[in-house]
Amino acid sequence: MCAxxxxxxxxxxxxSGRGSNFQALCEAVKRGELQAKIExxxxxxxxxxxxxxxxxxxxxxxxxxxxxxxAMTRMQHESTILEKLQKYKIxxxxxxxxxxxxxxxxxxxxxxxxxxxxxVVNIHPSLLPAFPGVxxxxxxxxxxxxxxxxxxxxxxxxxxxxxxxxxxxxSIEKCESLQEVIEIGLKIEHGLYPKTLNQLFTQxxxxxxxxxxxxxxLGN
Length: 220
Ligand code: GRF
What we know:
binds 5-O-phosphono-beta-D-ribofuranosylamine; globular; seven-stranded mixed β-sheet; 11 strands; alpha/beta; 27% strand
C-alpha cells in the first residue's frame, strides 16, 4: 500500500492542561508530517487551555471532568470516556500531558494481541527511567543533572514504565533557571512527539523484551 492510499490512523489525544504538545500534533497533521487523524481531544479539566486549541483546529472534544459536577471514581470516569469514544473507532490513544493514571481495565481496551502492547503512547519530560512522575523537568533541575531530555514511550501497566520508542537528550548545564529548562524541553518535545508517532504509524516495528526494533517502512 503506498503512503497516499494508506488509511489514516485514528487517534484520540488525551490532555489535561496547557496543550502545547496537542497543538504540535495538530500542526504536524496539518502539514502532512503526521499521518494520522486526530478524531477527538479527551480532557478531564473543564478550564484546560487545551480545549481552546481543539476549538481552533475544529477537533471534537470529549470533556469528562472527574471533579465536576461531582467527584467520580476512576472507573466511572474512564467508563464515561470509553462510552463517548466508541463512535470514533480509535486505534491509538496519545497521551499529551494527561494528568491521570489509566487503570489496567482501560488499557486492556487498547490491547494489541499481535504485538502484545497497549496501543497507548505517552511523552514524558525526562530521559526515562530517570525522573518518572510529575514535574520531571523540575526534578532534573533540582537534582543538578547536566543532561535531561524527553522520552516517547508505550504505556505499560506501571508509572512511566513502558518500552521506549524515542528519546532526545539536551544539555541543561548552561541554563540559569527551571523556566529555561522547560522552554528548551517543550520545544524538543514538539518535534519529537509527532516525528515518533509518525514512525510508529508508518513503519514496521516490534518490541523485543523492552527494546523497540524499528524495521523498514510499511509497504517496502
Ligand atoms: C509535557 O512536558 C509532557 O511531556 C508532559 O506533560 C507536559 C504537558 O505539556 N507529559 P503540554 O500540556 O503539552 O503543554
